[in-house]
């Protein structure tokens, strides 16, 4: 005899993701496509995008587009670069695309999503408002390596340090992992902060 859908499991999955979940995660909680469609039609689930849903009891996130991009990119991905700066509110820059870092084995094209293939260790990622994002030091190192304007990097560093989101040592460690140029830019900014 087959078991029915596990509503509690799906709730726990979605709760950790701001109320959002994928059709694949619903299938892991034993929701058939028909059952998923039924709950979407009755209003228990809100279909946000192809393959991405939100439990109706959770309000829509201001980062709904980021949730869609992140969940579609797979379980080992994270919001990164300028998009992570926006989540942390560390920059005035409004990214034209959503930036997601995925493992090297996961390179796929997505509309309006800039995928960065790179290794992400567990300590390179954290959770913010239900989204998996790169840590502040990793984010700042990533945008510096990507060539974003130095004044944007400076603003992000000053905001992050001022709000206690990171410290000098963490910034230096992550910068040193990204190469000489990134390390030099971050050190110069940190020296200016001290003066």
Q: Tell me the strand order in the biggest sheet.
A: 1-3-2
Terminal CA distance reads 71 Å
Number of domains: 2
DSSP summary, beta strand count: 8
Rg, rounded, reads 19 Å
Mean pLDDT figure: 92
DSSP summary: helix tally: 9
Low-confidence stretches: none
Structure at a glance:
With 195 residues, the chain is of the alpha+beta class. Helix content is 46%, strand content 16%.
Walkthrough of the structure:
A 3-stranded antiparallel sheet has the order 1-3-2, with helices on both faces. A 3-stranded mixed sheet has the order 4-5-6. Helix content is 46%, strand content 16%. The protein is elongated and about 65 Å long. It starts with 6 loop residues before the first helix and ends with a helix. It is of the alpha+beta class and 195 residues long. The protein has 9 helices and 8 strands. It has 2 domains: 7-55, no CATH class; 64-194, no CATH class. Helix 7 (150-162) packs across helix 9 (180-194).
Q: What are the main properties of this structure?
A:
195 residues; alpha+beta; 2 domains; 3-stranded mixed sheet; 9 helices
How are the secondary structure elements laid out?
Layout: H1 7-15, E1 20-22, H2 23-28, H3 33-42, E2 45-49, E3 52-55, H4 64-73, E4 78-79, H5 81-88, E5 98-102, E6 113-117, E7 125-128, E8 131-134, H6 136-145, H7 150-162, H8 168-176, H9 180-194
Parallel strand pairs: 5-6
Antiparallel strand pairs: 1-3, 2-3, 4-5, 7-8
